[in-house]
Amino acid sequence: MEYSSDDIAAAGSLQFSTYIHVSMATFWIYDYACSLHEEWTFLLGSRWSKVKGLYIVTRYLPFILLTINLYLSFTPNDDPGRCSVFDDIDSGIGIVSVIFSEFFFILRTYALWNKNRILLAAMLFTFFTFVGASIGIAFATIAPAVMATSAIPGITGCYRSSSNLPLLAPILLLSVFELGLMILTLIRAIQSWRVNSSRLYVVLVNHNIFYYACGLLFSVTNIFTLLLLQYSYHTLLYDLQFMILAILATRMHLHLWQMNQHAHCSSAIVRIPMFDISSVNFTA
């Protein structure tokens, strides 16, 4: 039986998507294994707090996300309706994962600005406005989306055959928000670079800038894939972005907690209670 060029291209995109999802799962497991001792030291050695709960949720949401991706990649999907349901779940978990990852850096920016409540209220209002708009746009476009599977036997997986251009809006909103937080971080760093030379302060600023840079890089890449690629390629890096941002957010928080523990053990002057990052004092 002969297949059209579109059938072959779609099958190739599904196979490539499977390779990417397996690679993502392998990377996540490797990262978890490498940080297992440090992570359990933090989980068992730190007191319970809202930020600790935020850490746990952010850290383990990618596991659920990757499980769904692998299930869709390796399970025959003869029913597009079932595929659509899992795709909706995948999108919802991805959005929740980004929300928790970004919340770490809202708190960090709040701490950098000396716990300015007006700034915190402005950031939260903007953040939840963007989140509401992103969820509305995402699910308004996902619900009527047409799911397609490969016409070639033995090729598992499914993809959205309808236009994904409306999904540009959530990416653009995320990029605008991260750019705003980056500007706030840079302004604060410029204002305080002579006054505050604390190593913890420098590390926090560097973490913020690196996180925003990675987020913007992934967002730009996703915009180009949506505009230029077809089949399953156009949303291939969505879940990769969610996973990397979650890893960065939790790794950076873990590193900051370890530095705080070291500073607390080596000096009685420096006390930064990382059970609540919003109470950080960088004047030491």
In words, what does this structure look like?
With 284 residues, this protein is mostly helical. The chain has a two-stranded antiparallel ribbon. It has helices at residues 5-34, 36-45, 50-74, 80-112, 117-142, 168-192, 199-228, 238-266, and strands at residues 147-149, 158-160. It is elongated and about 75 Å long.
| Anisotropy-based shape | elongated
- Could you tell me the mean pLDDT? 79
Low-confidence stretches are 267-275, 278-284
Helix percent reads over 70%
- What Rg is obtained from the alpha carbons, in whole angstroms? 21 Å
Number of helices, where a helix is a run of at least 4 consecutive DSSP H or I residues: 8
What sequence of helices (H) and strands (E) makes up the elements? HHHHHEEHHH
Secondary-structure blueprint:
Elements: H1 5-34, H2 36-45, H3 50-74, H4 80-112, H5 117-142, E1 147-149, E2 158-160, H6 168-192, H7 199-228, H8 238-266
Antiparallel strand pairs: 1-2
Helix pairs in contact: 1-3, 3-4, 3-8, 4-5, 4-6, 4-7, 4-8, 5-6, 6-7, 7-8
Write a concise keyword list for the protein shown above.
284 residues, mainly alpha, two-stranded antiparallel sheet, 73% helix, disordered C terminus
Please provide a brief summary of the model.
With 284 residues, this protein is mainly alpha-helical. It is 73% helix and 2% strand. It has a two-stranded antiparallel ribbon.
